[in-house]
Amino acid sequence: QVQLVESGGGFVQAGKSLRLSCVASGRFFRINTVGWYRQTPGKQRELVARLGDGGTPDYADSVKGRFTVSRDNAKNTVYLQMNGLTPEDTAVYYCNAAWRATAGQNRDYSNWGQGTQVTVSA
C-alpha cells in the first residue's frame, strides 16, 4: 500500500515558478513510475510529466522546456519544478505512482495523491 501526499502548490503571477513535491509512504517493494497530472473543472485529467526509475522523463508538449520532473528514491519523493508559469497552467495537480507490493509481485498497483492547487494569475 502506498500513500501519496502532494505539496507546494499556491498562487503565483505569470512568469514565476513553483516546485511541487510528492512524498510516498507505506508498504511497498518499489515504485516503478511516478507521474504528475493536472485537472480543471469539467476537463479530463491530463498527463503533465512522467518518470520511471532511472528512465527518461516524458512531458506534455504544453510544458516541455518549462517543467522538470525528478525523483529522490532515498526520500521516496518526486518533484515537479515548474518555471515560466502561465494562467493556462492553473489546475489541481495530482501525483500518481505505479508500484509493486512485493519482490515476487508481477503486477503494478496505482495510487493517487489528494492533489494540490496551482493558480497562476496574468
Keywords:
7-stranded mixed β-sheet; 122 residues; elongated; mainly beta; 4-stranded antiparallel β-sheet; single chain
The low-confidence parts are none
How much helix, percentage-wise, in residues?
under 10%
- What overall form do the CA principal axes indicate? elongated
Strand content: over 45%
Q: What is the string of SSEs from the N terminus onward?
A: EEEEEEEEEEE
Could you tell me how far the N terminus lies from the C terminus, measured between alpha carbons in angstroms? 40 Å
Which structural class should the secondary elements be placed in? mainly beta
Mean pLDDT: 95
Largest sheet: 7 strands, mixed
* Distinct helical segment count: 0
Radius of gyration: 14 Å
- DSSP strand tally: 11
Please outline what is shown here.
0% of the residues lie in helices and 57% in strands.
Structure description:
- With 122 residues, this protein is mostly beta strands.
- It has strands at 2-7, 10-13, 18-26, 30-39, 46-52, 58-59, 67-72, 77-82, 91-100, 109-112, 116-121.
- The strands form 2 sheets. Strands 2, 4, 5, 6, 9, 10 and 11 form a 7-stranded mixed β-sheet that branches.
- A hairpin with a 4-residue loop joins strand 7 and strand 8 (77-82).
How is this fold's topology laid out?
Elements: E1 2-7, E2 10-13, E3 18-26, E4 30-39, E5 46-52, E6 58-59, E7 67-72, E8 77-82, E9 91-100, E10 109-112, E11 116-121
Parallel strand pairs: 2-11
Antiparallel strand pairs: 1-3, 3-8, 4-5, 4-9, 5-6, 7-8, 9-10, 9-11
